[in-house]
Amino acid sequence: MKARTPKESLTILTEIVLPNDTNNLKNLFGGRLLSWMDRASAISAHRHCKRIVVTSSVNNVSFNQPVPQGSIVTIEAKVSRAFTSSIEVFVDVYIEDQTVAGKKTKANEAIYTFVAVDQLGNPINVPPLIPETDQEKKRYEGALRRKQLALILAGKMKPKDATELKALFFSPEEIVNLENHEKESKDQG
Ligand SMILES: CC(C)(COP(=O)(O)OP(=O)(O)OC[C@H]1O[C@@H](n2cnc3c(N)ncnc32)[C@H](O)[C@@H]1OP(=O)(O)O)[C@@H](O)C(=O)NCCC(=O)NCCS
What we know:
By secondary structure, the chain is an alpha+beta fold. It has a domain at 6-131: Thiol Ester Dehydrase, Chain A. Helices cover 33% and strands 29% of the residues. It has four helices and five strands. The chain has helices at residues 30-49, 134-153, 163-169, 172-187, and strands at 11-16, 52-63, 72-82, 86-96, 104-117. Strands 1-3-4-5-2 form a five-stranded antiparallel beta sheet. The protein is globular, with a radius of gyration of 20 Å. Coenzyme A binds next to strand 2, strand 5 and helix 2.
């Protein structure tokens, strides 16, 4: 399968915050933003693999600042890594106020994971990703760690199998010691 670059999946969605998008404080309702981010990131994942994709998990969503009614919201989604059937997409959210200055600031960020599926909903393989810029390379490197954490939280992976996560907390020698200790405990029944 032909590898693709992150820029091939870049998806930009621009919205304006109208009264029916807001909460009681006249700021953007979080659920609406999640929906916009899901939509942009699903298109991005589809652009990478050209197949049907379904949202499998949403991580690292942070609502760092309120987004007032009238703001122009730009959502930029780009694939950060592709595994066997799953695709991680980074979403960056910017807001632009409606003053003469039209100041643009980064407001939010989220990481979505999609799985490419066939017509019956069974996972299928996706093309690999080749990161190009420094930021793309950094996001690519962290993706396996995030995948392992998501799988542990979903009860689909045992912490002892999370090699990348272990490497974050322990030195190679400590990992060998831990594995030996685990083996000894198992042997002793
Ligand atoms: C996503 C879905 C297809 C995965 O099915 P599954 O039986 O768990 O499939 P597998 O265990 O074979 O995993 C398939 C891939 O999903 C990944 N995955 C599964 N659960 C995950 C989770 N919680 N977080 C991150 N990735 C996950 C696996 O790591 C695997 O990736 P890989 O092939 O790149 O290694 C299935 O759970 C599904 O259809 N969910 C509903 C999706 C949906 O309807 N979303 C819309 C929102 S309601």
